[in-house]
Amino acid sequence: MKAVAVQQFKGVPEVMELPRPEVKPGTILVRVAAAGMNPFDWKLVDGILDGKMPHKFPLVLGVDGAGTVEAVGDGVTLFKPGDHIYGQFIHSPVGEGSYAEYVAVPEKAAISHAPNSISLVEAAAMPTAGMTAQQIIERSGLKHEQILLLVGATGGVGSFIVQLAAMQGIYVIATVSSEEDEVRMKKLGAKETINYKKLSIEKEVSSRYPSGVDGLIDLVSPAAVFKGLTELVAVKGVALTTAFVSTAEVLKARGLSGGNFETQGTPASLDALTDAVDNGALVVPVGEVIGMQDVPGAITESRNLKGKGKTVIRIGG
């Protein structure tokens, strides 16, 4: 089978011909239709889980995926051949990922039946970004009419956050870098936008909201920038980052709750997203659909924070 993999940590991803995985007890064999790209994918290549989980080389990249169940191993009860499924395919050993024509996934992984109303290509864009958005809004505790400053709004996670927050009546201020982004964010539910290429986020927010916003969700900023943005949050507000750059001291200085946020993938979270999509309440923000040969370039763009919406790799039918 074809797969996108690296030969060692920090290696350059390339399309390789690798053996098709075998079905083992408790696992399902998935014929992958598409894989969703996330920054965590290249962080795996850099060794973020080295020493925490066993790894297998060549290391096939990819956490998010969607596809059709080809076969099931002994003891599997939740899925059957022909089912359309999606979710986070990551499992031990790291390196049997979703950037492949086939993947064997434990039944107990964060996977579930795919939404009926969208394609598998769209479904592949949902798992990590959608669950992160869902869970970080819940963690924020923000309520109807409270004000959220969302930094990094135009990527996959941000696009989901805007929609899910707007559904709850949260007033979203989204950072953008173009007029095109501004239109897209407002269509998804943002009430205001700030073009950080033209304006200072700090000056704009502090002038519009001198008492501070109720919450900050920052998906992209380094530590110094995140610290500065926390000054825009009202005392006893909340500041969360997915970039793991927060410290207790930064939050304590403003009496804020929050800090570093990590997603916990579960089938229940996926099912809640499925319901929202199938009910027409949630639009999946697919930004670009690429082929396997385009992955190295797309990873470079992701490293440089150039992503718009969600990049999905089309793999099979």
UniProtKB/TrEMBL annotation:
Keywords: NADP, Oxidoreductase. Residues 11-313 form the Enoyl reductase (ER) domain. GO terms for cellular component: cytosol. Gene3D superfamilies: Medium-chain alcohol dehydrogenases, catalytic domain (3.90.180.10), NAD(P)-binding Rossmann-like Domain (3.40.50.720). SUPFAM superfamilies: GroES-like, NAD(P)-binding Rossmann-fold domains. It comes from the Bacteria. One of its GO terms (molecular function) is quinone reductase (NADPH) activity. It comes from Chitinophaga pinensis (strain ATCC 43595 / DSM 2588 / LMG 13176 / NBRC 15968 / NCIMB 11800 / UQM 2034). This is Alcohol dehydrogenase GroES domain protein.
